[in-house]
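User: Sequence in, structure out. Go.
Assistant: Echoing your sequence, followed by the structure tokens.
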Amino acid sequence: MEQVLFNLFDNAAKYAPQGSRITVTARHEDDSAVIRVFDEGEGIPGADLERIFDKFYRVRRSDRQRAGTGLGLAICRGFVESMGGSITAANRTDRPGAVFTIRLPVPVSQKLPAEALP
């Protein structure tokens, strides 16, 4: 999970203006832990939303200052899915920027048999 968050923060730093805010929220929704990472960049072009988690895929921007390998988000998806979760990307609805949403299952507590209780 540390690598997933690092990669998302690194992407936000690449695509959002210097000094802009990166916001992280976490909450329990239904049977999932939901973590969202919001940035204040230009958002993700619609044509790229479906592909940004593909290996070696990079959003083309002429003003990008730091080029990446196109592996960061693919790595995020691999780690999150290996934990039984999902990761999605969207554009913010409240202002310019992107939001990445991670959903991880929360284990259901199992009742112990009465004879196992002290």
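User: And one key feature?
Assistant: The mean pLDDT is 84.
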